[in-house]
């Protein structure tokens, strides 16, 4: 699985990039039974929302997983960057399990 990361309103450090890739590569084990021979691409956008929030930083993460004939999408907004990444991973994992059960 190829992962493309885009950062908005934040600097994409090595730590953020490594954490994101580490968490999302775990989805490959759900792809193999259903989409064995195809190459999937995941686009991840991470960033900080605008300054209209009154207290604290709000981070968001958006993930789109492009599969043959399907596009899976998940969005999360959290006060912690890592929680937002984990939330989109869990949502995409849930969607992949649903596709696996249907096939």
From TrEMBL:
Residue runs in coiled coils: none
- Matching NCBIfam families: yfiA
What's the protein here called?
Ribosomal subunit interface protein
Top-rank lineage group of the source organism: Bacteria
Q: Which Gene3D superfamilies match?
A: Ribosome hibernation promotion factor-like
């Amino acid at each position: 699985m190829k992962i493309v990361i885009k950062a908005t309103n934040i600097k994409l450090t090595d730590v953020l990039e490594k954490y994101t890739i580490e968490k999302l590569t775990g989805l490959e084990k759900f792809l193999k039974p259903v989409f064995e021979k195809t190459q999937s691409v995941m686009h991840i956008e991470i960033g900080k929302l605008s300054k209209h929030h009154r207290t604290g930083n709000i981070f968001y993460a958006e993930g789109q997983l492009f599969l043959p004939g399907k596009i899976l999408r998940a969005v999360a907004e959290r006060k912690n960057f890592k929680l937002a990444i984990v939330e989109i991973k869990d949502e995409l994992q849930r969607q992949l399990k649903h596709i696996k059960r249907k096939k």
